[in-house]
Amino acid sequence: MARRRMIYEGKAKILYEGPEPGTIVQYFKDDATAFNAEKKAVIEGKGVLNNMLSEHFMVGVAGIGIPNHFIKRLNMREQLIKAVEVIPLEVVVRNVAAGSMSKRLGIEEGTPLSRPIVEFYYKDDSLSDPLVTEDQIVAFQWASPQDLDEMVAMALRVNDFMSGLMFGVGIKLIDFKIEIGRLFDGDFQRLILADEISPDSCRLWDIETGRKLDKDIFRHDLGDLADAYTEVATRLGVMPKKSGGPSGPTLVK
User: Fold this and answer.
1) Fold classification of 6-84+224-235 (topology level)
2) Is 162:173 a contact under the CB 8 Å cutoff?
């Protein structure tokens, strides 16, 4: 499709004006970043994989009644989405201690949690996306108490869906991040899932070996990130199993 006016460029995606009012074209880049963009690289094919995987997950959660911004995939790197007002919070669900939780609380990485924990982080790169409390969220009017109740319920439903989906292909969902936006219809609004769900925003470990299949591979130089994402996509049936030839996704420019 013809390139339209760019609205926003982030670390891993670019947003363009959509073909119809209330729509946006979301383009997935090959850029990989870690540690608040202190570490950067271009991983060939990463954008293609994340586009296809995010489509798979968004269609899946919609199938169990979780509203989201996804409309359709346009090509290998772009998808058409609904324009929403994104709440400036990252909603993180943790099933196993890892990453910042392990560092913050001194809990060994890989320790199972007795129940999923939902955390909120304020979206501000200059502050390194700090952890915030529900009282702070309400006090600064980023979201209302009713919004928070709905966001937690949505996050836990996504967790149930994603945990089961991943378990079925031999992967443990350690934790994940989602973003939620407000979709306006006249004077009314509703909350819907936004941004993306992909290995960029999840921690995924092989159940049998504990091998990481997510962006921690890039963060800690553990191997080839595109190969790991391709394995996730192949296990889920998003990409066909390889029968020889070069590895990685087929790019369509």
Assistant:
1) Phosphorylase Kinase; domain 1 (3.30.200)
2) yes
CATH number for region 85-206: 3.30.470.20
- CB of 201 closer than 8 Å to CB of 11: no
Burial pattern 167-178, b for ≥16 Cβ within 10 A else e, equals eeeebbbbbbbb
Stretch (H or E) spanning 151: helix 145-167
Task: Give CA separation, 217 vs 29, 222, 226, 238, in Å.
Answer: 18, 5, 10, 21
Taking the whole predicted model, whether its pTM rises above 0.90 is answered as: yes
As averages over each run of 10 residues, the pLDDT of the chain (253 residues) reads: 82 96 97 87 97 98 98 97 97 97 97 98 95 98 98 98 98 98 90 97 98 96 96 94 51 40
- As annotated, the residues of the chain forming the CATH 3.30.200.20 domain(s) are 6-84+224-235
Amino acid symbol at 138: V
pLDDT score for 2: 57
Taking the C-alpha atoms of residue 238 and residue 253, their distance in angstroms, rounded to an integer, is 19
Residue 103, CA distances (Å) to 120, 176, 207 in order: 17, 17, 23
